[in-house]
Design brief:
With 229 residues, the chain is mainly alpha-helical. The protein is built from 13 helices and 3 strands. It has helices spanning 2-7, 15-18, 25-35, 45-48, 51-62, 79-84, 97-112, 114-120, 127-140, 166-179, 183-193, 197-205, 211-227, and strands at 39-43, 67-71, 91-92. A 3-stranded parallel beta sheet has the order 1-2-3. The longest helix has 17 residues, at 211-227. The radius of gyration is 21 Å and the shape is elongated. The model is unreliable at 120-146 (pLDDT under 50).
Amino acid sequence: MVHQLESKGLSCWISVRDVPPGQNYQETIVEAVESAKGLVFLFSENSALSGEIKKELSLAGNVNIPVFPLRLAPIMPTGALRYELATRQWIDLFGNPSQALNKLADTIKRALSPAAAGEARPTSVPAEGAAAIASHAAAAAGAAPAPEKKKPSPKKRAPILAADSEEFEAVRALLARHIGPIAKVFVQKASSEAANLDAFCERLAGHVPSPADRATFLKAVKTRLSAGR
């Protein structure tokens, strides 16, 4: 599949090939998903049972990148996967693999094209992108393009928790009990992006799969943070 996609000009990242020696495996996967333009999900009986796959799909949803399911066998999603795939149409690899991979490549190219991105997610276009689109439209109509306005750089907000603080390590350890070493990456990201402490806690709790464990984690992390302040 990777060879087929790359032969059509689509660069691929796969952990077994692209995680550098000596690097933290889970952290590298998280960074790769967050920087990707899309994620191909190989849907099989084995992947349907993988907790790590569910985490990667959840992460893709959190950073709002498209997921392209490729079904390797005639099975149906259940549980959490049923929720993740509820609004996505998959492509069946079995039957005619070559045709399926061509369809997958074409689907990815259409979804990632600038035109498709503009139609599907108009509100996600950043200000500078919106200015460029407006400028191109004006030029096509024969009018002079409007000058782009420079936006002032936003002030960088201090993280909720400093990465070398005792509180950061305590929260990381609480979350790691439920999701493993990948917790550090999620705590770093939430700490730099959450608007306030409550939003920070809620965002981290969203990574805990079980409702009961989620409630336990949320209570524990709020107690720990309130004790340290």
